[in-house]
Design brief:
The chain has 8 helices and 6 strands; from the N terminus they run βαααααβαβαβαββ. By secondary structure, the protein is α/β, with parallel strands linked by helices.
Length: 209
């Protein structure tokens, strides 16, 4: 069974670095980023984040804000980003079995490429889909549907791996079996829509693959 992974929070430990970059960039525009903001925005694309913060401040155009965040984020990623050990170990086993693997991430293509390259994970994947390559991002199913298309299999033949409520909703709407890994970003009730909820990833979760 092919497996489609989310990236941030599932494969790479990017959330704290990403929010450090966002907080730093938004501080330049006199916006204080709180833990409540972080919880609300995890899993959403830049356009959603921009609209959210624009309700609190007179921000410059989106491209200016995005560039400030991206510059800070990519510099941090190149120096400090790491993959989750359980994710890398699982990928190595699945790839060794010849399982088709894909990534479906809300992140834009430039961020996704930096994340996979900086952590050495890029070569594990037959296909990847970024948030700026589909019409609608999670919780819409477009990312997962496109990933299945690129793998050449029906969505219902795939297992999706997620860590957020919006990601779980997207994968379920696409018709995929969903494994949720609890990385501590959400409460267990928030992840209850998954078929399987685990504290860490293991190859045994994909025994049918």
């Amino acid at each position: 069974m092919p497996v489609v992974f989310d990236c941030d929070g599932v494969l790479v430990d990017s959330e704290s670095l990403a929010w450090k970059a966002i907080a730093s960039a938004m501080d330049r525009f006199d916006v204080l980023v709180s833990d409540e903001d972080r919880h609300h925005l995890v899993g959403h694309p830049f356009e959603y984040e921009y609209a959210y913060f624009a309700r609190r401040a007179d921000l410059p155009p989106p491209e200016v804000v995005k560039a400030a965040i991206s510059d800070a984020m990519f510099a941090l990623f190149e120096r400090h980003l790491e993959s989750f050990e359980d994710a890398k170990d699982t990928l190595e086993v699945l790839a060794g079995r010849g399982v088709l693997l894909a990534v479906a991430s809300t992140s834009a293509r430039d961020r996704l490429d930096v994340s996979l390259r900086a952590t050495g994970l890029a070569d594990f994947f037959f296909a990847s889909v970024a948030g700026d390559e589909v019409v609608a991002v999670k919780p819409a199913p477009d990312l997962f549907l496109k990933a299945a298309e690129l793998l050449g299999v029906p969505p219902e033949a795939c297992t999706a791996v997620e860590d957020s409520p919006v990601g779980i909703a997207a994968a379920r709407t696409a018709g995929m079996r969903v494994v949720a890994v609890d990385r501590g970003q959400f409460g267990l009730d928030d992840l209850a829509g998954a078929d399987v909820l685990v504290p860490r990833l293991t190859p045994a979760l994909f025994h049918g693959s």
